[in-house]
Amino acid sequence: MIVSLSNSQPTDSFGISSTELPQMVEQTFIFRGDEGNPLLAPRGVWSVGDKLIVADTGQNRVFIWQKIPKNEYEKPDLVLGQLETYETGRNSGHRVSASTLQYPSGIWSDGQKLIIADSWNHRVLIWNTFPTTHGQKADLVLGQPDFESNLPNIKGIGSSPTSQSLNWCYGVFSDGEKLWICDTGNRRILYYEKIPTQSFQKADAVIGKPSFEERDYENHEPIWPYSVRVAPNGQMAVTDTQYYRTLVWNDWQNAFSEPADIIIGQPDFDSNGQNLYSLFPKQNSLNWVYDSFFYKNGIFIADTGNSRLLWFETIPTKNATMADNLIGHENFNIGSENANTRYGTDKQLYWPFSICIVQNQLFVADTGNHRIIIFQIS
């Protein structure tokens, strides 16, 4: 369903910007997946070439469309994570294997390799060549010694992390050569100098901890890192959900030994106030932030708890910088629950978890509304 902003109803706010600022969205397209088996709480979205890849998180599967859909409902070309395309159970209702998923979230692909954060199986799956069949087995697994294991930190709850283990891993990112994994439950990011070529491969370095065995944290470290992005110029952004902030390093290589250069959403490392300790959002506050994405010279932040996307035209140079614009509300002081929700949350963005930008197309996993929104942005 394509929505032209000039013709949309006044209550449709999912594509609007602040009424006092230039409108960023030229057109929106709403996509709900397969009409007979639609999306349920998708938490991951990625596009490469003309492909659309969606983590249908609530139903433990990943959908792949070889062409960007043009209709509100379209059947996927491929379904991963289930032994039968119509199944939705955790690990396809069976034991964990190379073909199953449990709460998939982060996605990355260059059109050849495919990498998925299989979060509740505490592992990351890698397909060396892009899948071509339903339920295709992954080629490699990280975080577990084999495809049949899925305990946190290999040995179970309470076990210490290692250079090979994962615990609630939600985000993945690559530049085509290197790989970063948000090992969220271990409060750290694992780094691989090369995309691994062997299962259970050790990480080369860790961000956010002094060693691979540490899990305790200091306030200047990522507390609950959910997403990691690295810009072409080397800047790194980590969405730190539990402290309602996004951490930015001007050079990703400094993240191994130094705190972030800039904090978006908080004035300092010790502050962790939801909406800067305010009941309502502000132009520089965040609430349960889950993703970010570099675009042109700036950055979009998925301010999930406030059901909006914040836009910074340039990467901030000081903490708690005011956003330059937003998508999803008519001003910066409107949050998730407002007058529009009287008509149903589908009139607005509702808990957007994941974003991906290809050229001028902004893909948003509008998780609370069980849909993907594709914005054409300026």
From TrEMBL:
Pfam family for this entry, one: NHL
Protein keywords: Repeat
Protein name: NHL repeat-containing protein
Species of provenance: Arcicella aquatica
